[in-house]
Amino acid sequence: MERNQSLHTYIKEELLHRIKTNQYQPGEKIPPELELCKSFNVSRTTVRTALNQLTLEGYLVRQQGRGTFVADKKVKQALSQTVRRYSDQLADQGKHPEIEVSDISVVAANELLSDQLNVNLQDPIQRIERVRKANGEPTQYEVAYVPWSVAPGITAEHAGHSLYKSLNEFFDVWIAKTSENIEIAFADEQICKFLECEQGLPCFYIETLAEDKDGNKVEFSRSFFRGDKTNFSIERTYSK
Fold it and tell me: The HTH gntR-type domain covers which part of the protein (predicted)?
């Protein structure tokens, strides 16, 4: 145990190590609380605290009357420069991708959208609401905004796949650059409805601004990713 590390943190890290090194496999039932108490020579409260944290973070699943099981591996998405689509990234992980279009409407640009998309106030903006799923489980809730002048008449069929690919194929709009801002947010009542999670669940919140090769702003999106179902990889390359 590291210096100044609490007992429950040590137990959490040890169990997490076993999960990440596949000593505990996805779907496998871990030892019961009393057995872990004896193994680590600690109180049941200490073990329970560690298990609760791992459950909240999405590494364990507790089933009433059955015990505690290792959760399925989280959906991994790349934030590095990549042209690979969401569906391709999930397929590599053995997961079935799905994009559910909840709503498409036209709204008038407010101050935020006017600033982000460089359009005039009240200009028509297409609001596209979608939920991404992996193996049937919601992992991401997204609201994207595309100016009508950029791609008029986006349909559910266009949005039901890669939106960027549809913009290119049907509207001759090529996304050349995206900028992302990432924060931590907590799921409110509306987010919970789409992500099918408990209120207050920690989520990754990402705002994305997309530009074409001429620097025109063509899409702005706000996305919430379930923190217990998703993680991100970032790869950087450096020149001498």
Answer: 5-73
